[in-house]
From TrEMBL:
Gene3D superfamilies: 3.60.21.10. Keywords: DNA recombination, DNA replication, Endonuclease, Exonuclease, Hydrolase, Nuclease. This is Nuclease SbcCD subunit D. GO terms for molecular function: exonuclease activity. SbcCD cleaves DNA hairpin structures. These structures can inhibit DNA replication and are intermediates in certain DNA recombination reactions. The complex acts as a 3'->5' double strand exonuclease that can open hairpins. It also has a 5' single-strand endonuclease activity. The keyword Amino-acid biosynthesis does not apply. Residues 1-218 form the Calcineurin-like phosphoesterase domain.
């Protein structure tokens, strides 16, 4: 059976205030074409269909269109809710959509009830484990503790119990939305840490042929049988080195999966640039990034005038700007009290200006303003003491 594994669409999400809806639509066009050209037998979507619990109408319409197109292809689709989704909202109409081959799994109580599909070699049972918020599902699943590992293990116990009752040779696929130990996170995933722990061991998925994971945005292999598809689009500059893709998984008659990465369309490459402003504007090697979305970190000792506007003249798609001056007098190894000892209020105030504005100390006019303010404070204090 040929399975297309994808996840983390985050429909409705923007990228540094850039509306991504057109790019998400282009990805879904690509997904539909991939299903058609690669003769996919089933599509699995491992959570975070939407970016938030109440998505914008345009995102809902895009999702609705994708479901209709998948149903028109006659290719069964199994999807689960992620930690960004509202499970109850996403699951509305699930029984009706199942008649069209779109199987939504959003109820934790249904972890052990699979969608069963068949090929020439027999049945394949698809188990959907939506994102399991430990405190909310512990009692439902009978987990020992309200922690990620006990809760996911309890859900997988239901999967293994159901699978044991099925005919010999039944192959199995689990969809799960979780942080599995060994996976590499990025800045764009929402923290799901509970009790100081966010991850679960890959061994929790023992006993199934393939675990199609969602949540981490980088496409990655944990084991041959446990993989993340990652998000189809980049949603933070920490994903600059990601190669966005989906897994095309061929599940053989013996249950051994063979996986191939299929690249996703890249609407615009990402670039992280670092250096002094004038160097970034003049370096010929940076010409390849002039059409990229750019995050720039300036290392000038003094903050340049209108740096964003000047960067945008060469890099019109610059989206983020930060400052990390190369040289700063931080008084390393000297306590705050020691740095202040023997210094006047005027000197301390002038040092503060130089600290927050590296490379440019207070000028004559600014020193006069500081002196006037300090004198006024002293006068007021003296007046209160004498009243």
């Amino acid at each position: 059976m040929r399975i297309l594994h994808t996840s983390d669409w985050h429909l409705g999400r923007s990228f540094h205030r850039v509306n991504m809806l057109d790019h998400q639509r282009a990805f879904l066009d690509h997904l539909i074409e991939t299903v058609r050209t690669h003769e996919v037998d089933a599509v699995v979507v491992a959570g975070d269909v939407y970016d938030r619990a109440v998505p914008p109408l345009a995102a809902i319409e895009l999702f609705d269109d994708a479901l209709h197109r998948l149903a028109d292809l006659g290719v069964p689709t199994v999807m689960i809710s992620g930690n960004h989704d509202s499970a109850r909202r996403l699951g509305v109409g699930a029984r009706l959509m199942a008649k069209a081959g779109i199987h939504l799994r959003t109820d934790p109580a249904g972890c052990g009830t699979p969608v069963v599909l068949a090929d020439d070699h027999g049945d394949v049972a698809f188990y959907g484990l939506p994102y399991l918020e430990p405190a909310l599902v512990r009692d439902t699943l009978g987990a020992e503790k309200a922690r990620h590992t006990p809760v996911l293990r309890a859900a997988m116990d239901r999967v293994r119990a159901d699978l044991a009752e099925r005919p010999a040779g039944t192959r199995s696929v689990v969809l799960a939305h979780a942080f599995v130990t060994g996976g590499a996170p990025s800045d764009s995933e929402r923290d799901i840490t509970i009790g100081g722990v966010a991850s679960v061991p890959a061994e929790v998925f023992d006993g199934v042929d393939y675990a199609a994971l969602g949540h981490l945005h980088g496409c990655q292999r944990i084991t041959d049988r446990v993989r993340y598809s990652g998000s189809p689009l980049a949603y933070s500059f920490s994903e600059v080195d990601h190669r966005k893709s989906m897994w095309l998984v061929d599940l053989g008659p013996d249950g051994v999966p063979a996986a191939e990465r299929l690249p996703c369309p890249v609407p615009r490459p990402l670039a992280r640039l670092r250096g002094r402003l004038e160097d970034l504007l003049a370096d010929p090697d940076l010409a390849r990034h002039e059409n990229s979305w750019v995050e720039a970190t300036l290392t000038d000792t003094a903050r340049p005038h209108e740096p964003m506007a000047r960067l945008a003249q060469r890099f019109p798609h610059v989206l983020a700007l930060s400052f990390e001056p190369e040289a700063r007098e931080d008084g390393s190894g000297i306590s705050y009290a020691q740095r202040l000892r023997g210094r006047t209020d005027q000197e301390i105030a002038e040092d503060f200006v130089a600290h927050v504005r590296p490379g440019r100390a207070a000028d004559t006019a600014e020193r006069a303003v500081l002196r006037s303010a300090i004198d006024e404070v002293r006068t007021d204090e003296a007046a209160r003491e004498s009243a």
